Each structure stands twice: as C-alpha cells, then as structure tokens.
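Protocol step 4 of 5: obtain the predicted structure for the target chain.
Materials: sequence only (see below). No template structures provided, no constraints applied. The aim of this step is simply to have a reference model before the mutagenesis design in step 5. Sequence pasted as it appears in the construct record:
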Amino acid sequence: MTSDETCTGVSWAGFAAAEPEAAERVEARFGAYRHHVLGTLRRDGSPRLSGIEADFRAGELWLGMMSGSRKARDLRRDPRFALHANPGPGTDLAGGDVRIAGRAVEVTDPAVLAWYVDETEPPEPFHLFRAELTEVIRTYVADPHIVLEAWRSSGPLRVIRRGNGAEPPEVTLASG
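Step 4 output (structure tokens):
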C-alpha cells in the first residue's frame, strides 16, 4: 500500500463495539506495562521503532509524543503505524503477543488538546495523534495450537488455529 491509498480505519470505540471481548483482552495486554514499541516509516521508507506509551481513553487509542520527535515527524509525513505491546519479562507472553496497525491522525483541535492535558498532564509541548485502526492481531499458545485472533477493519474477527504438523489451519469467525 502506498501512502496515497485510502485506508478505512476504525476508532478504538468502533473496534470495541464490534469485538468487545477481543478489545478487552487487547486493552488489558497493553495495560499490563506502561511502555510499548511504535513502528513508523522513515522518509526513505525504512522502518523506525520507538518507545511509546499507548493511552486508551474516551473511546480512542491516543499516541502522545514529544514535540519535534522523529516518530511525530514520521507520522506527519506518512500516518501508517504499527504498535506492539510490551512482551514483559520472561518468555511466557502472558495475555499473548498483541499488535495494532492503522493510521495516526494528528489532533490539532485546541479543545481536545486542552482536555487531554487536563486528563493526562503530559510534558509540554507535545504532539497528539488519534489512532484509526486497520488491524488488531493477538497471538497466543493454546496447546497444541498457536492461535491468532486477527481483526481487520474490513471484516469480523477471525480465529486461526495452527498445529505443528502439515494439517491446514482451522479458521473460524468469532462472534463479538
């Protein structure tokens, strides 16, 4: 996909309304740790990974960052992002491995910015982006399977179970 192509994104509230149980699991996973990893695209198209605090508030997923930061400049130029939940200590990935992708919309409305400052007291000045989700993926082990919960803004949550053998994966649609 090029940066000019349109991509229909959904707010966090829209995802949560469509898939409430999955949204609860994803939000809990992000809530387990404060810092996560944001992937953006550099000017040359190569990936940039940066630390970030993801904030679920008022039906939105907010991405706040320091004024003039490279990740903010990346998102202003090309709003596509990927957000990966902190895996935490050890190797058990309690709650699964969770990733969100979409487009970041910069917030410039003074009333919204003032509300956010009142709610979170971020260091100022700062950039604030609202996430429009295009994909949410949660991967976990349910022995003997690897299970993927895969949601795209174009359809319902799919649950894919894969074994270690040559058998084809089992795909089902989850009901929110």
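Step 4 remarks: The chain has one domain: 12-136. Residues 12-136 form a domain with the Pnp Oxidase; Chain A fold (CATH 2.30.110.10).
Proceed to step 5.
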